[in-house]
Design brief:
Elements (H helix, E strand, L loop, with lengths): L32 H12 L4 H13 L8 H8 L6 H9 L4 H14 L8 E3 L2 E3 L9 H12 L1
Antiparallel strand pairs: 1-2
């Protein structure tokens, strides 16, 4: 985000999406569908998605918590001001299942994204390399190309 802040004219649209949808890669574990539905819930409850994403990243990669456990997710996001019971209910009752399917469809079918994160600006795009991502230099060059 600090790179994007150098371009105040840039409008960022965070679009939560599963990195490995269950239907496409059945052997991939753990699945992040609940974490992505949590992001959709957070967005609908005025939680900054970059803060939510940072929290998920921290909890998964440094604390090694389970992204497919609603209780673990609720505990992880409680410090962000998200009410645990409401969050768990939203994840387990299917409230965000349709929105998740639409988000995955928008990314993978409409925009032909094959790895996340991906950056699109008009007809320009910067795709990740699966398992590697995007380097800071690549993103910096992309932003400079888009915004001058």
């Amino acid at each position: 985000m600090r790179l994007i802040k150098k371009y105040p004219q840039a409008e960022v649209a965070w679009r939560p999406v599963e990195a490995h949808p269950k239907s496409e890669e059945p052997e991939h574990i753990p699945y992040a569908d609940l974490a992505v539905m949590g992001a959709l819930f957070a967005r609908d409850h005025a939680i900054d998605l970059s803060v939510y994403n940072d929290r998920m990243f921290e909890m998964y990669f440094t604390k090694h918590f389970s992204v497919d456990d609603p209780l673990a997710l609720a505990s992880a996001v409680a410090p962000l001001g998200i009410e645990k019971v409401e969050f768990i209910n939203a994840l387990t009752n299917g409230a965000y299942a349709h929105a998740l399917a639409e988000a995955n469809n928008y990314a993978y079918k409409t925009n032909k994204i094959w790895a996340v994160p991906a950056f699109i600006f008009g007809d320009k795009r910067l795709d990740s390399v699966e398992g590697v991502g995007v380097t800071e230099t690549q993103l910096s060059n992309f932003l400079r190309e888009c915004y001058g």
